[in-house]
Every structure is written in structure tokens, then in C-alpha cells.
Amino acid sequence: MGKGPYLCGLDAAVDVVGGKWKPLILWALYAGRTLRFGELRRHVPGVSEKMLIQQLREMEADGIVHREVYREVPPKVEYSLTELGETLNKALEPLGLWGDKHMERLVARQAEKIEQSA
Length: 118
Hints:
Number of strands: 3
Low-confidence stretches: none
Helix content: 55-70%
Strand order of the largest sheet: 1-3-2
Order of helices and strands: HHEHHEEH
Radius of gyration: 17 Å
Largest sheet: 3 strands, antiparallel
Number of helices: 5
Shape: globular
Distance between the termini: 44 Å
Strand content: 5-15%
């Protein structure tokens, strides 16, 4: 049995990276990138400001994202991945490759679902 509330390691990992936006935020901050909030929002198309703030707070609380606040006028805030976040991104690489390999099939399946529901 797992430690704490998790049943296994996959359960714990999905808890940290679950949802639509977190993997996209991780990818935007990939490879040591440091981005300001506006830059990050542009790298994650479709995310609302409120949702991005919420997801970043959760990821910061989980130790995945580092938030650096510079005391200047106007205020400057930058986001980057922690070491833990970098390792999580590495773990997600094979999943991204799988998605790339099967994208055509997945898009076709999504289109079928939309047609069936219409």
C-alpha cells in the first residue's frame, strides 16, 4: 500500500499534475525557462487569468513551481520550475511523445465523439 492518502506513485503524480492546465504550464516552463505572468499566460493559450493564478498557487504549494517576487515599481513576478518540477517534466516527456505519435488518431476520435453527440 502507498504512503498517506495515495494508493500508488501514479496516484500521487496525477494529483500533482492533474487537470488540463498544469501539464501545459510545466511545458511552458520547460528547460530552465523563467517567465513573467503575462509571458506564461501567452504560452498557455486559452487559460483564464484566474485559472492560471490558481494552478500556479497549487503548483507552488506542491513544490513544483518557484515564484520569485521582485520588490520594484512596477512589481515584477517570475515563475520557474523547481528541481522537483524539472524531474516531473522529465517524467512527462514519454507521455508527450506518445501523444505526438498518436495525435492523428486521437483527433479523429474526438471528432467522432462530437459527431455522435450532435
